[in-house]
């Protein structure tokens, strides 16, 4: 049996002693994941019914891009803010203005921890390194960031506790607080600390993958203007310009979906799945994997498998289009992992990716800064593998 491993430092270096959903195992994981999936479904998480909520946030996001008036800018901050607002609507029951200082600071802290998460590898496996007086690996700074994120979320939880109406569940926090009160005298899987951890997990599942994939996709489109034009042509012929693309348009936009799949593949956002432990001795192809071994599933071994993806280092959406012009090969994409621990936010992430990328290409032509070449296709490893910072121009289509 293989189960999730709660390392000394968890995904965002938040919630050090509390597993939440992602880092939990055994009965705690089962209770939290079942609860989260059930309640998120109640709120329309990843479903067609949630599409109007995303469209509302998307329209605000597109209007923010227009304010740059075709000048070059870095899209990373604004896209993370927009994605975070969608998760805020589910967890906290409301969205924030992009210029709200507390919300902006919260998003900034999350991004710092996501971007710097990879350097914590040595501290995860040699915890005593955290005690060094010099913050070589940035662990102490990430811990401070985590505490500030906790404080922001705790304030929201406190407000929810004051106004909680068990007959009118507004969001995920309300649902968790009700469950917490009902379970207080039983197994105690639910706690205030695990609520904080669970919210952090939802942000990891619902914002980082999507925002980073969109940044990769735009980088590839800057370097492949013919692909960008082909996307726009398909959108223009099947949707037009009078409304935002919707989920019902998806069957008519196979090329756009192929671009998304290829961005997920070549962007290689999650090279390794979350660490797991072996709960008992197992044998694989004659090799013994001892109990308590740590396993890091290598997802990028699939990404660059030439038998699955010929010329695997080339950005080529056509590999996901068959001879009849239909989408194919979706099952080869493992960005969201596999099995019972498949990413909690997969359905939301796929919905966001489709709605955001099609709307972006529908409304804007994306170009490098005037006089510059397209950005080099390079990445940086943090909690996810993200593109290096680059600037872009969004030119409104006439």
UniProtKB/TrEMBL annotation:
Q: Name one GO biological process term.
A: xenobiotic metabolic process
Which residues make up the binding site for heme?
Answer: 343
GO CC terms for this protein? Answer: cytoplasm
Q: Which GO terms describe its molecular function?
A: heme binding; iron ion binding; oxidoreductase activity, acting on paired donors, with incorporation or reduction of molecular oxygen, reduced flavin or flavoprotein as one donor, and incorporation of one atom of oxygen; steroid hydroxylase activity
Keyword vocabulary terms for this entry:
Heme, Iron, Metal-binding, Monooxygenase, Oxidoreductase, Signal
Cofactor(s) needed, names only, are: heme
Q: Does the record carry Iron as a key word?
A: yes
What organism, scientifically named, is this protein from? Mytilus galloprovincialis (Mediterranean mussel)
Q: What is this protein called?
A: Uncharacterized protein
Tell me its family: Belongs to the cytochrome P450 family.
**Signal peptide residues on this chain, from the entry's feature table:** 1-23
> Tell me, what's a Pfam family for it?
p450
């Amino acid at each position: 049996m293989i189960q999730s491993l709660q390392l000394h430092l968890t995904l965002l270096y938040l919630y050090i002693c509390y597993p939440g959903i992602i880092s939990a195992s055994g009965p705690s994981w089962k209770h939290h994941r079942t609860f989260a999936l059930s309640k998120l479904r109640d709120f329309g998480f990843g479903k067609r019914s949630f599409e109007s909520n995303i469209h509302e946030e998307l329209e605000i996001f597109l209007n923010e891009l227009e304010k740059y008036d075709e000048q070059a800018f870095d899209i990373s901050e604004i896209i993370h803010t927009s994605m975070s607002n969608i998760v805020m609507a589910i967890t906290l029951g409301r969205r924030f203005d992009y210029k709200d200082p507390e919300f902006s600071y919260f998003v900034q802290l999350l991004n710092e921890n996501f971007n710097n998460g990879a350097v914590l590898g040595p501290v995860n496996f040699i915890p005593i390194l955290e005690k060094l007086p010099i913050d070589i690996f940035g662990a102490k700074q990430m811990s401070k960031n985590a505490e500030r994120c906790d404080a922001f979320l705790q304030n929201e939880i406190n407000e929810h506790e004051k106004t909680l109406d068990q007959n009118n569940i507004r969001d995920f926090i309300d649902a968790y607080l009700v469950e917490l009160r009902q379970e207080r005298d039983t197994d105690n899987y639910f706690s205030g600390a695990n609520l904080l951890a669970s919210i952090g997990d939802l942000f990891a599942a619902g914002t980082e993958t999507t925002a980073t994939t969109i940044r990769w996709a735009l980088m590839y489109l800057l370097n492949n203007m013919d692909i960008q034009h082909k996307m726009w042509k398909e959108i223009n012929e099947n949707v037009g310009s009078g409304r935002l693309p919707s989920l019902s348009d998806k069957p008519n936009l196979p090329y756009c979906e192929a671009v998304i799949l290829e961005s997920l593949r070549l962007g290689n956002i999650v090279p390794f799945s979350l660490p797991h432990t072996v709960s008992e001795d197992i044998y694989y192809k004659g090799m013994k994997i001892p109990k308590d071994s740590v396993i890091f599933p290598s997802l990028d071994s699939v990404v660059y498998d030439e038998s699955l993806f010929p010329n695997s280092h080339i950005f080529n959406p056509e590999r996901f289009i068959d001879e009849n012009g239909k989408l194919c090969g979706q099952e080869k994409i493992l960005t969201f992992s596999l099995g019972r621990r498949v990413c909690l936010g997969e359905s939301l992430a796929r919905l966001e990716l489709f709605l955001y990328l099609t709307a972006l290409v529908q409304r804007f032509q994306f170009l490098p800064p005037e006089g510059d070449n397209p950005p080099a296709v390079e990445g940086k490893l943090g909690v996810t593998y993200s593109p290096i910072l680059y600037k872009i121009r969004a030119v409104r289509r006439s």
